[in-house]
Specification:
Helix content is 54%, strand content 1%. By secondary structure, the chain is mostly helical. It has two domains: 45 residues; 237 residues, no CATH class. It has a two-stranded antiparallel sheet with strand order 1-2.
């Protein structure tokens, strides 16, 4: 029996028991209990999710190493010192951490089945097939396809990971510079402390937006490879997860959203994103803003000039710059306010664009459409890049 079969059978047994004992008016509790237990056992049941069990074990081991080599902690302590180091009550009992948990559960329970995934058709297979068809139409079919071998399959798996991460990089950068998207994404950055649960502090509308970005960049890579190689191949897996994804979890991906400082150094840090580099991305200090957008492969930040490498351990200030109060105090505010802010920001951008269009067509019209004197000060002067909310 596989390890994931144990909780799966236990969940089915609980659901069957509830279905037999509950009256018809309370049968909805069966579905609720099933979804709740699936959420609790997700590290075992869902290897492709945010918290695979081997990733959590690796994160715990890396955190233990960070504890042992932490020169700032008092000597000794053993397990009694490690537990508060790894799970400090001030962080895990904070209001921000509770919002992380509530948002993650809310998204999993209501949208875990893809209820908001309106872009599900825009997959890597779709873009790759389009490109393959276009290449075949333009250059004709290849008479002798290249053959897949162990080396080419491993390189293929790594290339897919890099291409997918480039799509995430593009979305992530756009989510910081395009105000309507930032209104949605800032829920994630409003966390004032970080635990692994912060990774799930993401608005449900982000998923149908992020997916097509990653599918497009991956499809652009896969399409030509399928045209050249033909046939089918399989990506190597570790613990049921693709090779590259498993590698990053084993390198401590679950510590990216945590207080545990783990930095791989300036050489590896230019290639692979360390937990410290992503923690810096969440800092709202001026020197850290809009840095380290990549999720796994740091060379995308290196190429596009957004890489920030620390010189040593740095003090970070988490949360949103420019906000005197937390805008996402609960699960309702976390889900409703980003949508409202995004709509308001979009309307303002459309009105501003229409005003500039009227001004371009009628040079004597003001930004609000009213006429102005020819020698009056330009109301649009210095308005090329209006200040946005703190990130």
């Amino acid at each position: 029996m596989a390890i994931e079969d144990i909780p799966r059978e236990a969940i089915q047994a609980v659901a069957a028991l509830l279905q037999q004992t509950l009256p018809d008016s309370l049968l909805w509790l069966t579905a609720f209990a099933r979804r709740t237990l699936e959420y609790v056992f997700a590290p075992i049941l869902d290897h492709g999710g945010r918290y695979p069990w081997f990733g959590l074990v690796a994160a715990l081991g890396i955190a233990a190493c960070a504890f042992l080599f932490d020169r700032t902690r008092p000597k000794g302590g053993g397990i009694r010192g490690f537990l508060p180091f790894c799970f400090p009550p001030a962080i895990w009992r904070s209001q921000s951490a509770w919002v992380d948990l509530k948002v993650g559960f809310f998204n999993y329970f209501l949208f875990g089945g893809g209820a908001l995934n309106v872009t599900w058709r825009f997959t890597t297979a779709l873009f790759a097939s389009w490109i393959t068809v276009m290449l075949t139409a333009g250059f004709g079919p290849i008479a002798h396809h290249a053959s897949w071998g162990p080396v080419s399959i491993v390189l293929f798996a790594l290339a897919i990971s890099m291409a997918s991460d480039f799509g995430y990089f593009l979305f992530h950068w756009l989510a910081h510079v395009f105000p309507p998207l930032w209104a949605i994404h800032k829920l994630h950055h409003s966390a004032e402390v970080m635990t692994p649960l912060t990774a799930a502090r993401v608005h449900a509308l982000e998923h149908p937006i992020t997916g097509p970005f990653m599918a497009l960049t991956t499809g652009v890579l896969v399409g030509p490879l399928l045209y050249l190689y033909g046939g089918e191949t399989t990506v190597p897996t570790i613990f049921g997860l693709d090779m590259a994804g498993a590698m990053f979890f084993l390198l401590g991906h679950n510590l990216h959203h945590s207080h545990v400082w783990v930095y791989f150094g300036p050489i590896i840090g230019r290639v692979i994103v360390s937990p410290a580099q992503h923690q810096i991305h969440h800092s709202c200090l001026p020197r850290h803003l809009d840095k380290n957008f990549a999720e796994h492969w740091a060379f995308w930040d290196t190429i596009f000039g957004t890489l920030y490498l620390p010189q040593g351990r740095e003090t970070l200030t988490l949360g949103l710059a420019g906000y005197s109060e937390q805008p996402h105090t609960g699960v309702l505010a976390a889900n409703i306010r980003p949508v409202v802010d995004s709509v308001i920001t979009s309307v303002r951008m459309v009105r501003r664009g229409m005003a500039w269009l009227r001004r371009w067509r009628e040079p004597d019209a003001g930004l609000d459409g009213s006429l102005i004197a020819p020698n009056a000060p330009d109301p649009g002067q210095g308005f090329a890049h209006p200040p946005g909310p703190g990130r």
